[in-house]
Write a structure and sequence with these properties.
mainly alpha, rod-shaped, single chain, about 120 residues
């Protein structure tokens, strides 16, 4: 009878141990879920901060690029105006020289035309 009593005691002890383990596992699971929730909240907060920083940096870079574009546009316009002015000066100079020496200018133009004609005709052969 002592062995049945011992068996029953062991069985009860094992049952109690099993229940204690289940309770401990539930408590640990709840604690881990709570920690995971807190970690998720921190991660979301950090992700929000990183997103805000990226947006701010993007805005800075956009402004900087806009400044470079405006500067390049102004410089391009200056170069264009300078080139147009030089072209106008060259055209006026050429017109004046042709008006001063019309026969010499015509002879030069004829010579250039003949040379170009010979060069182009030579390529076709």
């Amino acid at each position: 009878m002592a062995t049945t009593k011992a068996r029953e005691d062991i069985k009860n002890d094992l049952k109690t141990l099993k229940e204690d383990l289940k309770t401990g596992a539930r408590e640990e699971t709840a604690r881990l879920r709570e920690k995971a929730g807190a970690a998720e909240a921190r991660i979301r907060e950090k992700a929000g901060e990183a997103g805000a920083q990226l947006r701010a940096r993007g805005d800075e870079l956009r402004q900087q690029a806009r400044g470079y574009y405006d500067e390049a546009r102004v410089r391009g316009r200056e170069y264009y105006d300078d080139a147009a002015e030089r072209l106008d000066e060259a055209q006026r100079y050429l017109t004046e020289r042709v008006q001063e020496r019309p026969i010499q200018s015509t002879a030069i133009a004829l010579g250039v035309g003949v040379v170009l004609g010979l060069l182009l005709a030579g390529r076709r052969r």
